[in-house]
Design a protein that fits this description.
Elements (H helix, E strand, L loop, with lengths): L1 H16 L13 H21 L4 H19 L3 H12 L2 H25 L2
Helix pairs in contact: 2-3, 2-5
Length: 118
Protein backbone atom coordinates (compact mmCIF):
# COMPACT_ATOMS: atom_id res chain seq x y z
CA UNK A 1 0.00 0.00 0.00
CA UNK A 2 2.82 2.41 0.84
CA UNK A 3 4.32 1.66 -2.54
CA UNK A 4 1.16 2.88 -4.28
CA UNK A 5 1.12 6.12 -2.29
CA UNK A 6 4.76 6.65 -3.18
CA UNK A 7 4.08 6.18 -6.88
CA UNK A 8 0.99 8.38 -6.71
CA UNK A 9 2.94 11.13 -4.96
CA UNK A 10 5.79 10.77 -7.46
CA UNK A 11 3.40 10.95 -10.40
CA UNK A 12 1.67 14.06 -9.05
CA UNK A 13 4.99 15.70 -8.18
CA UNK A 14 6.56 15.03 -11.57
CA UNK A 15 3.39 16.14 -13.32
CA UNK A 16 3.49 19.50 -11.55
CA UNK A 17 7.23 20.09 -11.85
CA UNK A 18 7.18 20.85 -15.53
CA UNK A 19 3.96 22.79 -15.32
CA UNK A 20 4.63 26.41 -16.01
CA UNK A 21 1.78 27.04 -18.36
CA UNK A 22 -0.09 29.43 -16.13
CA UNK A 23 -2.09 32.09 -17.88
CA UNK A 24 -0.02 35.26 -17.70
CA UNK A 25 -2.12 38.45 -17.82
CA UNK A 26 -1.63 40.70 -20.84
CA UNK A 27 -0.26 43.54 -18.70
CA UNK A 28 2.61 41.34 -17.47
CA UNK A 29 5.87 40.62 -19.29
CA UNK A 30 6.02 37.18 -20.89
CA UNK A 31 8.41 34.65 -19.36
CA UNK A 32 10.83 35.03 -22.26
CA UNK A 33 10.78 38.83 -22.12
CA UNK A 34 11.17 38.79 -18.33
CA UNK A 35 14.16 36.47 -18.68
CA UNK A 36 15.78 38.81 -21.24
CA UNK A 37 15.22 41.88 -19.08
CA UNK A 38 16.57 40.14 -15.97
CA UNK A 39 19.68 39.03 -17.86
CA UNK A 40 20.35 42.62 -18.92
CA UNK A 41 19.71 43.94 -15.40
CA UNK A 42 22.11 41.44 -13.85
CA UNK A 43 24.76 42.19 -16.47
CA UNK A 44 24.38 45.89 -15.63
CA UNK A 45 24.65 45.16 -11.90
CA UNK A 46 27.78 43.09 -12.50
CA UNK A 47 29.33 45.82 -14.62
CA UNK A 48 28.69 48.40 -11.91
CA UNK A 49 29.95 46.10 -9.15
CA UNK A 50 33.18 45.48 -11.09
CA UNK A 51 33.69 49.16 -11.91
CA UNK A 52 34.99 49.93 -8.42
CA UNK A 53 33.28 53.27 -8.02
CA UNK A 54 34.56 55.10 -4.96
CA UNK A 55 31.30 56.95 -4.34
CA UNK A 56 28.01 55.07 -4.10
CA UNK A 57 26.22 57.97 -5.78
CA UNK A 58 28.24 57.41 -8.95
CA UNK A 59 27.20 53.76 -9.01
CA UNK A 60 23.56 54.74 -8.50
CA UNK A 61 23.67 57.32 -11.26
CA UNK A 62 25.21 54.81 -13.66
CA UNK A 63 22.67 52.16 -12.66
CA UNK A 64 19.79 54.55 -13.39
CA UNK A 65 21.34 55.44 -16.76
CA UNK A 66 21.91 51.81 -17.61
CA UNK A 67 18.42 50.77 -16.58
CA UNK A 68 16.94 53.46 -18.84
CA UNK A 69 18.84 51.90 -21.73
CA UNK A 70 17.43 48.49 -20.78
CA UNK A 71 13.86 49.82 -20.62
CA UNK A 72 14.31 51.42 -24.03
CA UNK A 73 15.88 48.28 -25.52
CA UNK A 74 12.96 46.12 -24.37
CA UNK A 75 10.33 48.81 -25.05
CA UNK A 76 9.07 48.81 -21.46
CA UNK A 77 9.26 51.13 -18.47
CA UNK A 78 10.24 50.59 -14.86
CA UNK A 79 6.61 50.51 -13.70
CA UNK A 80 5.77 47.73 -16.17
CA UNK A 81 8.85 45.79 -15.06
CA UNK A 82 8.08 46.21 -11.34
CA UNK A 83 4.49 45.11 -11.85
CA UNK A 84 5.65 42.07 -13.78
CA UNK A 85 8.33 41.23 -11.22
CA UNK A 86 5.76 41.49 -8.43
CA UNK A 87 3.46 39.15 -10.35
CA UNK A 88 6.21 36.57 -10.78
CA UNK A 89 7.22 36.77 -7.11
CA UNK A 90 3.66 35.72 -6.31
CA UNK A 91 4.22 32.69 -8.58
CA UNK A 92 7.51 31.37 -7.19
CA UNK A 93 7.59 28.17 -9.25
CA UNK A 94 7.55 30.18 -12.48
CA UNK A 95 10.03 32.75 -11.15
CA UNK A 96 12.36 29.92 -10.14
CA UNK A 97 12.22 28.54 -13.69
CA UNK A 98 12.88 31.98 -15.15
CA UNK A 99 15.85 32.51 -12.85
CA UNK A 100 17.23 29.09 -13.69
CA UNK A 101 17.22 30.16 -17.34
CA UNK A 102 18.85 33.48 -16.38
CA UNK A 103 21.60 31.69 -14.44
CA UNK A 104 22.14 29.23 -17.29
CA UNK A 105 22.42 32.06 -19.80
CA UNK A 106 24.81 34.10 -17.66
CA UNK A 107 26.93 31.02 -16.94
CA UNK A 108 27.16 30.26 -20.66
CA UNK A 109 28.23 33.84 -21.37
CA UNK A 110 30.87 33.59 -18.66
CA UNK A 111 32.28 30.39 -20.20
CA UNK A 112 32.36 32.00 -23.65
CA UNK A 113 34.22 35.06 -22.32
CA UNK A 114 36.73 32.92 -20.41
CA UNK A 115 37.30 30.73 -23.46
CA UNK A 116 37.74 33.74 -25.72
CA UNK A 117 40.27 35.35 -23.36
CA UNK A 118 42.55 32.28 -23.27
Amino acid sequence: MKKYFYYLFLLIFLGNCGKSSIDIPKDILSRQKMRSVLIDIHLLEGKIAESGYIYPDTATINYVRGSKIIWKKHKIDSVYFRKSFQYYTQNPAVLTQIYQEVVDSLSLREVKVKTKNK
